[in-house]
């Protein structure tokens, strides 16, 4: 397969028309085509997805082969999708393919399974799709020659390794054990014990003996087990030192690689010799080879009783490797998977004792129920994450063996994109059920193919960042898309879908000749629902189009930041002017929420944003946010009425301090050393600014501090809502909070300050020199700016990372402080300016410290 760069574009819109044209100038199917072929298409509701590949950019070259073991049923379907969309387009990879599908295993008398395991020993890396282990019903279903053994068991015996399972953490997927903040990697000794035992039914009274006959001719050892007085059962099981030692080696190798502590659990107090042997061998291996290495990184190995270890696991926060005997590992791995959320969010690797050979697979089965639906042509929503991570963990091992940094970078971006996709709210039904409950509606999850397509949207920009002097197809505009470009394409593939039409693909293969395609779209209605553009870079010689697209996108985002800052400046100026003339913060805040309620109602009525359906449980979850939001804005207005705008915002620079404090108290989030260190200039700067502030007022100072507390409490409630009841996007969540806040605040405003806003009071104030009409205009403008700047802030947050948004918010505070000082001619001493500056630098350092700890957890 030749090197290629991919481009993907997605559109969802109402009643569009598409016009495709392609001009050919070279032979095709024996004919010389020189004409242009136009193709206009119109549908009532269409989602368009276009892919294009262009030669000229090298894929990541993988130096050594990888063994691929194909599987069965629904996992075989998604395995193919993953290869075609997420692996092969980006990697120049030599695959040693083995079909472990049940029919091929039957045709080869299961020899193919043995051959695949032997190839894994040769090439050291294998990726495996889920396979069927036949029972009597399966033998009959497929007409098999025999009830073949589990291919996983066969492979484990040949590789003589340990199976390690580890959760994939997504912050928005709730965990049954909420205290598990870090992954727990569980290692199962997949040899011997109950799984190789000999059991029997005892028919009646008699003695059960266990006999060992040495090969060297020594006297046999005979042990009396039990004197049966009646019918019963018996079992004899075994293990071997060589396998236990390999188990210890691979467990310690993995723990050292991860720099995590290692625990071995047994019941050696009961099985003093059997389980005691596990304990002794582990201790010997640790003392001889690993103790010094572990201590250098402040990690350790420890043996624990299985019951004690289970109790510890439930109350711990995770972050360790747990080595289990065969049966314990079988049971506890499923417990961990469910505790962390889902078996579909679990990696599984088989690692040899020397740490050199690895086979990665999905931890779940072949998803037979979904396959039956697929066979009937019905829609499925099958979670492909574990299968994607089977590829990524196998390729990661290949990258480490080959010291291939480009491949390792690809793997890390693939896993991060997978987690980001889920955390953005795009997921399959099994995960949506964990968030929304058993009555989850179709709008909250994607089908099997849509999820993998959604992953591409996150993966493409990471793999192919837009570069100057590169060409890509791009679109400009929201309601009018008119610009297009053309480029040589060896392959074009388009899929058109519609909610009211069946899925149908249009594949147009153009090979061995040069073609150009121009795409233009028109006829957009005002009900445009979604527009997503993702482009990958093409060869530098291709042109300037992408440079222009990059410039336009940066210009648009920069403009949004400018509007955000400008609206914030005007809000603070108008708000201060109003509160100075009309010092009634509850009424002012209520009026600002009233403006927001009107804007939200218009937004929904004109269909600029879909109106949410809020049920009772969602309302109960949102209500604490609304209360905290209301109190935060009242307290901010109290402060603005008492002290200078610049001083209020200097005090509000203390927000990171309250964020860390409340997160530690309510969410059990332990701050890093760098986060704590960054809080020192924040607290010190605010203290210095407060001591030297000319307009200092205890009410203004206390209310600003209290607003920090309520605002960060709102953020804590928001995090809990995101984990447990996520159903609204950011804009709708803010809109609903605005309406609730207005409803809550109106009675309080009327009760506390209502008489102050009566016509008679305003007339009296006017007679005393207050310009009532100007006051009302500025109050209206402050309300509009108040709601608008927060809406713009949420819109920006949907396009950039939260940490980048936090940095932008820090800069916004600088802009507001400087502009208010200039506008109101606020007196500022040198020490006061120094304190403010130190606090703002601390906020910036806090953002940087948080950024250091903000990467997706995919361990």
Structure explained in plain terms:
- There is one protein chain.
- The chain has 859 residues and is of the alpha/beta class.
- Among the domains are: 5-25 and 39-58 and 449-552, no CATH class; 198-236, no CATH class; 560-671 and 697-798, no CATH class.
- The strands form 7 sheets. A 10-stranded mixed beta sheet has the order 10-8-11-22-21-12-13-20-18-19, sandwiched between helices. Strands 24-23-6-1-26 form a 5-stranded antiparallel beta sheet, covered by helices on one side.
- It starts with a strand and ends in a 7-residue tail after the last helix.
- The relative contact order is 0.10.
- Residues 1-57, 466-547, 722-726 and 854-859 have low confidence and may be disordered.
What is this structure's SSE topology?
Blueprint: E1 5-14, E2 17-24, E3 27-28, E4 31-32, E5 36-42, E6 45-54, E7 60-61, E8 66-70, H1 73-87, E9 91-92, E10 95-99, H2 102-107, H3 111-123, E11 125-128, H4 136-142, H5 151-159, E12 161-167, E13 184-188, E14 198-202, E15 206-212, E16 221-228, E17 232-236, H6 241-258, E18 262-266, H7 274-296, E19 301-305, H8 306-315, E20 320-324, H9 326-340, E21 346-352, E22 358-362, H10 368-375, H11 385-402, H12 405-423, H13 429-436, H14 448-463, E23 491-498, E24 501-508, E25 515-522, E26 530-534, H15 545-581, H16 585-605, H17 616-642, H18 645-651, H19 655-666, H20 673-691, H21 698-724, H22 730-753, H23 759-767, H24 772-797, H25 802-824, H26 830-852
Parallel strand pairs: 7-9, 8-10, 8-11, 11-22, 13-20, 18-19, 18-20
Antiparallel strand pairs: 1-6, 1-26, 2-5, 2-25, 3-4, 6-23, 12-13, 12-21, 14-17, 15-16, 21-22, 23-24
């Amino acid at each position: 397969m030749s090197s290629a760069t991919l481009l993907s574009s997605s559109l969802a819109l109402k009643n569009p028309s598409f016009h495709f044209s392609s001009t050919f100038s070279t032979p095709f199917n024996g004919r010389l085509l020189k004409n242009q072929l136009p193709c206009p298409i119109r549908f009532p509701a269409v989602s368009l997805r276009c892919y294009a590949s262009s030669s000229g950019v090298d894929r990541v070259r993988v130096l050594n082969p990888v063994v691929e073991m194909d599987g069965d049923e629904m996992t075989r379907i998604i395995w193919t999708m993953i290869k075609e969309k997420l692996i092969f387009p980006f990697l120049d990879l030599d695959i040693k393919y083995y079909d472990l599908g049940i029919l091929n295993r039957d045709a080869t008398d299961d020899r193919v399974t043995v051959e695949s395991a032997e190839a894994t020993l040769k090439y050291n890396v294998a990726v495996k799709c889920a396979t069927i282990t036949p029972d009597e019903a399966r033998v009959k279903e497929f007409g098999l020659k025999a009830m073949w053994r589990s291919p996983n068991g066969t492979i484990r015996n040949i590789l003589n390794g340990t199976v390690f399972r580890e959760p994939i953490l997504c912050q928005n997927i709730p965990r049954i054990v909420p205290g598990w903040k870090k992954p727990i990697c569980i290692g199962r000794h997949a040899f011997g014990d109950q799984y190789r035992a000999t059991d029997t039914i005892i028919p009646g009274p008699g003695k059960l003996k266990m006999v060992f006959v040495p090969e060297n001719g020594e006297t046999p050892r005979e042990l009396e087990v039990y004197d049966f007085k009646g019918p019963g059962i018996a079992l004899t099981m075994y293990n071997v030192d060589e396998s236990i030692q390999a188990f210890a080696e691979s467990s310690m190798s993995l723990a050292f690689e991860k720099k995590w502590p290692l625990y071995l659990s047994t019941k050696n107090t009961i099985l003093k010799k059997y389980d005691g042997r596990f304990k002794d061998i582990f201790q010997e291996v640790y003392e001889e080879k690993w103790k010094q290495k572990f201590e250098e990184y402040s990690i350790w190995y420890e043996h624990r009783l299985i019951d004690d270890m289970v109790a510890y696991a439930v109350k711990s926060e995770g972050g360790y490797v747990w080595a289990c005997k065969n049966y314990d590992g079988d049971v506890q791995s499923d417990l961990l998977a469910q505790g962390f959320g889902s078996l579909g969010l679990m990696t599984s690797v088989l690692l040899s004792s020397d740490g050199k050979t690895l086979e990665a697979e999905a931890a779940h089965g072949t998803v037979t129920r979904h396959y039956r639906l697929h066979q009937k042509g019905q829609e499925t929503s099958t979670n492909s994450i574990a299968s994607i991570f089977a590829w990524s963990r196998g390729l990661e091992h290949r990258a480490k063996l080959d010291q291939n940094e480009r491949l390792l970078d690809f793997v890390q971006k693939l896993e991060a994109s997978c987690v980001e996709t889920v955390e953005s709210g795009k997921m399959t039904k099994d995960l949506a059920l964990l968030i929304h409950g058993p009555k989850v509606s179709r709008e909250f999850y994607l089908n099997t193919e849509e999820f993998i397509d959604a992953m591409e949207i996150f993966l493409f920009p990471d793999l192919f960042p837009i570069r100057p002097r590169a060409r890509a197809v791009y679109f400009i505009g929201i309601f009018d898309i008119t610009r297009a470009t053309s480029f040589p394409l060896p392959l074009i593939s388009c899929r058109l879908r519609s909610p009211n039409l069946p899925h149908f693909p249009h594949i147009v293969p153009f090979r061995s000749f040069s073609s150009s395609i121009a795409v233009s779209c028109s006829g957009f209605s005002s009900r445009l629902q979604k527009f997503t553009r993702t482009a990958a870079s093409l060869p530098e010689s291709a042109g300037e189009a992408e440079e222009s697209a990059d410039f336009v996108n940066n210009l648009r985002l920069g403009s949004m930041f400018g509007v955000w800052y400008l609206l914030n400046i005007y809000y603070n100026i108008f708000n201060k002017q109003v509160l100075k003339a009309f010092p009634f913060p509850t009424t002012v805040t209520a009026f600002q929420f009233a403006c927001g309620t009107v804007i939200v109602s218009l937004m929904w009525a004109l269909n600029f944003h879909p109106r949410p359906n809020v049920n009772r449980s969602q309302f109960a979850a949102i209500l604490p946010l609304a209360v905290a939001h209301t109190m935060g804005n009242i307290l901010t207005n109290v402060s603005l009425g008492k002290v200078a705008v610049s001083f209020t915002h200097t005090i509000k620079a203390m927000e990171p301090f309250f964020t860390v404090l409340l997160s530690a108290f309510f969410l059990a989030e332990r701050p890093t050393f760098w986060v704590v260190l960054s809080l020192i200039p924040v607290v010190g700067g605010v203290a210095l600014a407060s001591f030297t502030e000319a307009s200092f007022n205890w009410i203004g100072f206390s209310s600003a501090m209290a607003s920090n507390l309520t605002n960060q409490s709102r953020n804590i409630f928001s995090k809990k809502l995101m984990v447990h009841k996520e159903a609204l996007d950011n804009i709708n969540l803010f809109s609903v909070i605005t309406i609730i806040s207005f409803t809550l605040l109106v009675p309080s405003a009327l009760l506390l300050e209502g008489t102050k806003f009566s016509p008679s009071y305003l007339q009296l104030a006017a007679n005393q020199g207050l310009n009532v009409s100007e006051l009302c205009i500025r109050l209206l403008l402050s309300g509009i700016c108040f709601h608008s700047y927060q809406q713009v802030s949420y819109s920006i947050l949907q396009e950039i990372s939260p940490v980048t948004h936090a940095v932008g918010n820090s800069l916004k505070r600088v802009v507001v402080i400087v502009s208010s000082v200039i506008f109101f001619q606020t007196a500022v001493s040198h020490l006061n300016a120094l304190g403010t500056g130190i606090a703002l630098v601390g906020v910036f350092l806090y953002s940087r410290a948080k950024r250091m700890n903000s990467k997706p957890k995919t361990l």
